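Sanity check. The docking grid for 5-phosphoarabinonic acid depends on where the pocket ends up, so I'm generating a full predicted complex first rather than guessing from homology. Inputs follow.
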Amino acid sequence: MGNIVLDYTHAMADVVGSTHGITAAELDGLAGASKSALAAVQARRTKDLRWLDLPYQSAVHEQVLDYADRMAGRFENVVVCGIGGSALGTIALQQALNSPYHNLGASGRYPRLFVLDNIDPDLIGEFLDQVDPAHCLFNVISKSGTTAETTSQFLIFQRALIERLGRDAHVPHLCVTTDESKGVMRDIVRREGYESFVVPEGVGGRFSVLSPVGLVPLALAGIDIKGVLKGAADMDERCKAEDLRANPAQLYAALQWLMQSKKHKPMSVTFSYSQRLALLADWYAQLLAESIGKRKDRRGRDVFAGPTPIRALGVTDQHSQMQLYTEGPHDKWFTLLSVDKSDHAVTIPAAYADLEAVSYLGERTLNELFAAERDGARVALTAAQRPSVTVHFPKVDPHSVGQYLQLMEIAVALCGEHYDVDAFDQPGVEAGKIAAYALMGRTGFEAKKAEIESAAPKQQLRV
Ligand code: PA5
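Predicted complex below; grid placement will be based on this.
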């Protein structure tokens, strides 16, 4: 078990120049505000920011592990029905901590894991065509218990199960994770007698991966959730340090704020040099975008704040987006995710000794090539005065991934203080949900429907 390391050398002015890099004076000048931001966030730990304490909820962890134990070997497939914060963490950790081919080989104790975080009829219809619900455990996850996408998935799979198995026998195939008392999913749990877990108060969707939202499906799929939680708890301790340069969350939040406010970089690219960590960038994109992307500041003034998160994968995107990143507008800063030690070492065979463009690869490893490409990308970005930080994972394991989750959650909470926005609401997401209710003809939303339908006439070109 090792600590992840945040290397910010290449974000600093002495390396990329003061137009694009942060000067020591700028960073240290933020120390006071950063310390206050930390105090403000930590003061809410036992009040409304209960997600900070998720790594320590050992009774809940035991309850989840007990359920996973009881279900072991009973299902071929675990199917998560959920969206946004109810899905992205699970998707990211499944990719990071299970084999990329887990779903090919899964059998026996640990089932395949599918996260259906969309309602595209071709996604759900094809699933119904291909998979026998009798072999599935459906974990329906919705904090609010009212999200139309998740409710529809629940209704579809519940009907499929009842038709296949009958009313009584379908019950053990459903497990619901939702609010303790609010929302219609809790009413349904009571009526049907489904197994259920609680999304605790003070844990918003995008901060919920370490609650039963993520823990239940991940434990079912065989992931070492205790290792993840230990990593998060260790990082939580490190993120209590008052000194800006000793606290990785303070440091990352300060860099994000300075990059946008002082260096005019509204785009934040998470560039994963690890296939396994790639979807952590998707999880972080939601965390950053939904938390900081706000029209109003905390005094209700229009500010239209927020960085735009971008996800990239090395080396794949070196052959796609790198041209833009090194020569396009100076509007981005980069966070490289890097892994010190892979689980595998793959040797490239020697061949064609007379062809130098091939032979130099012989007897070298993919590990060496991957590292050279990653370091080469950072060198190219630096030469083009594009600031970057690197998050070094000693290896991809539950402990390091847990550290990353807690680090970024706290950093984003601190960003809320720097940007002076409420990092824990999502009025823009709710607006979309309300418009969808109206368009589906839900009672109580008639005025919204009329408003949408009276909007400007379509302008279309039929081609
Ligand atoms: O982070 C959030 O709050 C959102 O992305 C929600 O997770 C998403 O809208 C799903 O909501 P719910 O879990 O209430 O169904």
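Relevant for the grid: Residues 398-419 form the longest helix (22 residues).
Also worth noting: The chain has 19 helices and twelve strands.
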